[in-house]
Specification:
- By secondary structure, this protein is of the alpha/beta class.
- It has a single domain, classed as L-arginine/glycine Amidinotransferase, Chain A (5-stranded Propeller), CATH 3.75.10.
- The protein contains eight helices and 13 strands.
- Strands 3-2-1-13 form a four-stranded mixed beta sheet, with helices on both faces.
- It starts with 24 loop residues before the first helix and ends with a helix.
- The C terminus is likely disordered.
- The protein binds arginine.
- Keywords: Hydrolase.
- This is N-dimethylarginine dimethylaminohydrolase.
């Protein structure tokens, strides 16, 4: 995670960002501290990266890359405003002692567009990460990648429209092209389908540890759906970060354990 010490909205690269609307950085910091504390209270270890001045979106650590087992791929951002975050996250990864750390050659916004779902990776394209990045990720991690087309600019990253749960997913079908929505319906017949209202507060931008689901406290319908499936939703207030188009998952780069296939490929 990256503390939002330099958080502000000074450019607009997604429809949530309004440079004329005021942002309360002190509140953003307090809310972020709340998310970190919630992870720690539920037994999760949190590593932090040093926030850099001039990179207001660096708080969205999910975009820094992809880490599975001892392999890490650092991001290559689509927008020049965020370009310097790629090398910053790369340096952090290189310092961790992973067996292999590669800087993405293709435009790749990390876990924003790549969701690790057991033995496969679900990958978004259309606004940020390039389709070529899907192939690069498949090759680097030795895992099958399912490409999905995003079509609604409000849901510009895969993690704004889809959340991986224990053995299924929750998603918002209207964020995807017809063929991609059909692919998801076929792969996950028992998925949770989010309502318009829950998707519109970025309720799907959550993190599931197998039982707890950390998500915005505004997604009350989704929390009820999750509870009905046996999960324990943990509501988090990140209203200031929503002004930049991010929520819980965006603030979190997960360090995934190696899967069987990734270990075999490595
Ligand atoms: N303002 C940031 C951007 O538009 C928000 C990134 C949110 N991150 C995410 N993983 N969806 O790039």
């Amino acid at each position: 995670m990256c503390r939002p010490e330099h958080f502000e909205v000074t450019y607009a690269i997604n429809p949530w960002m309004d440079t004329s609307a005021p942002v309360d950085r002190a509140l953003a910091l307090a809310q972020w501290d709340g998310l970190r504390a919630a992870y720690e209270a539920h037994g999760h270890r949190v590593e932090v990266i040093e926030p850099l001045a001039g990179l207001p979106d660096m708080v969205f650590a999910a975009n820094g890359g992809l880490v599975i087992g001892d392999r890490a791929l650092s991001a290559h951002f689509a927008n020049p405003e965020r370009a310097d975050e790629g090398p910053a996250y790369h340096r952090w990864m290189a310092a961790q002692g992973f067996a292999e750390v590669l800087a993405a050659g293709e435009t790749n916004e990390g876990e924003g567009d790549f969701a690790i779902a057991g033995e496969r990776i679900l990958a978004g394209t259309g606004f940020r990460s390039a389709r070529g990045a899907h192939e690069e990720v498949a090759e680097f991690f030795g895992l099958p990648v399912v490409s999905l087309d995003l079509v609604d600019p409000r849901f510009y990253h895969l993690d704004t429209a889809l959340m991986v749960l224990d053995d299924t997913i929750a998603y918002y079908p209207a964020a995807f092209s017809g063929p991609s929505a059909r692919t998801l319906a076929r792969l996950y017949p028992d998925a949770i389908i989010a309502t318009d209202a829950d998707a519109a507060v970025l309720g799907l931008n959550g993190v599931c540890d197998g039982y707890h689901v950390f998500l915005t406290d505004q997604a009350t319908g989704l929390a009820t759906q999750l509870r009905a499936r046996g999960y324990d939703p943990v509501g988090i207030d990140l209203s200031e970060l929503l002004k930049s188009g991010g929520s819980v998952k965006c603030c979190t780069l997960e360090l995934h354990r190696a899967t069987v296939s990734a270990a075999a490929a490595g």
